[in-house]
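User: Study the chain.
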Amino acid sequence: MHSEKIKIRNTETRQEMEVVVLSKRPSSIEVVIGSGVHSVKCELTPTRNGLAYAGTVMGREIVYERSREQVQADIDRLNPGEYRR
C-alpha cells in the first residue's frame, strides 16, 4: 500500500515538513504529523480565498499551499474512476 505524502509549512517558522495524508477531499484534507505514539492528526480546510488549506496542530498554524482546483486535479489523477463532488 502506498501512503500519499504532502509538504506543509509552519506559518510561524516557515519550516516545511512532509506529512502522511489519511484522506483527501476538496472540502478538507486529513493528515498525520509525526509517527508512532507521538503522531497527531490534523484537518486542513480551504482558506477563504481557496488558494490554500490551513489547520492548527498543538497551537501552531500549518498551511498546504495548493488551491481547491489543484487538489481536485490531484484526486482525479490518483483516482480516475471516483465520483466527483
Summary: The first helix runs from residue 68 to 78. The mean pLDDT is 91. The chain has one domain: 5-78. The chain is about 15% helix and 45% strand.
